[in-house]
Amino acid sequence: MVPLKLAVAVFLALLVVNSVVAEDPYRFFTWNVTYGTIWPLGVPQQGILINGQFPGPDIYSVTNDNLIVNVFNSLDEPFLLSWNGIQNRRNSFEDGVYGTTCPIPPGKNMTYILQVKDQIGSFYYFPSLAFHKAAGGFGGIRILSRPRIPVPFPDPADDYTILIGDWYKKNHTALKAVLDGGRKLPLPDGILINGRGPNGVTFTVEQGKTYRLRISNVGLQNTLNFRVEGHKMTLVEVEGTHTLQTTYSSLDVHVGQSYSVLITANQEAKDHYIVVSSRFTSPVLTTTGVLHYSGSNTPVSGPPPGGPTIQIDWSLNQARSIRTNLSASGPRPNPQGSYHYGMINTTRTIRLASSAGQVNGKQRYAVNSVSFVPLDTPLKLLDYFKVGGFKVGSISDAPSGGGIYQDTSVLGTDYRKFIEIIFENNEDIVQSWHLDGYSFWVVGMDGGQWTQASRNVYNLRDAVSRCTTQVYPKSWTAIYLALDNVGMWNLRTEFWARQYLGQQLYMRVYTDSTSLRDEYPIPRNARLCGKVAGRHTRPL
């Protein structure tokens, strides 16, 4: 009898060991968020630092890794981090925007529990509250493929994160006060590369070697053009999708977007300009960095190379040329083209139009005439605890043409449906839209008004799948979306002043039959605030 018990005990122990061994790896991060004085454009201002760094540290990970990020808030105001492009599958509680997650109070901490499930690619994190994004607190995220998954290009000699963005000399508190007063912000004062001004950052390369540049526009409003003097760039990945390897002399990166390019050090062994300039602005803002050939003593000289400025067609044609590499593997070994999105019938069409106007004498921005106002409790928590306080369906499926009004806009959508969303831009600026929790196929974009006949020009074969897309002035962009990630997800403009003043909404992806198999329960360490403060994250 004893040997049998021993055998059973050993068997159970092996089961436990095997389950631990089979579990996806964990990576742990401890971050302290503080204020600090920074001088990115030559004048001192208050920045937000993570572990004393501006920008914050990169997150390195591999597909399916569990990321445990313990964030200590040493600011004097509430704080949240969000994860641009990280899908947080079945777990919108961890998304880090105010509609899903309670802020971290001053002097407190919160541990984010993330999993980069079935994802690869280049993304970034950023602070989502109180216009903190204008003070820093952002950093890069890279998700590498698992070792057994083929990547459609050789390993580069090195892999650089390049965070570009427009920037103000004023503190974020002053900018927030302007917006709270109902006024618009002026044009930013300059552009940063990895938190530095002109020629403030250098990337070293060796003759003949190839490097990967992960470029993210973490700025506040402007499309930026990226180029390297004398060098071609081969696009290989866009927000988690391996692309056709098209070569470009320069690349438009709209606010909120991320790209990976390969660049080969095949030019004269000297220093070359890296140039980032604003698009569709007057005046044009420009900054520079340096691509330094190892061993060279020849500095950059002369004016930096110019780039496109106001040409819409140039940018539109480039956007249409970015397509999925159908034969390449994604996060799994099967080819990216094995999912035939163009052969699936859509069950619903949602048209979303942005607008700007005054409400009670103050500047506001809206989607389908609704200017979003937050409640005192995250929507996801109100929904989870069945407290109520908001209405699913408080925004219509199509523009009404009416005046702007304020409401907490929540769009109800059905889990596991396949839908079409049309972003309509009747304004004179480039819009940039992001959806948390998802990637979507950008099937079409063009000028003028969208009609049903516009579907005749959709790309139903190799459209790029990404999480942030641009909409050109007086134009439309169409996406296809598989609603396979249950939860409450933020759909917003990446023009951050417009987001702050109402150009956003939440998509509630749910059905009455949704169960715990479809959505993870609320994390045990979740902060509870507002109307759900004091409740338990698990039944007693």
Automatic annotation (TrEMBL):
UniProt organism field? Anisodus tanguticus
Family, similarity comment: Belongs to the multicopper oxidase family.
Q: What is this protein called?
A: L-ascorbate oxidase homolog
Residue span, Plastocyanin-like domain: 32-146, 158-296, 395-513
Keywords attached to this Swiss-Prot or TrEMBL record, sorted alphabetically, are:
Glycoprotein, Signal
Q: Which GO terms describe its molecular function?
A: copper ion binding; oxidoreductase activity
Check the UniProt entry and state the signal peptide residues, or none: 1-22
Q: Which CDD domains match?
A: CuRO_1_AAO_like_1
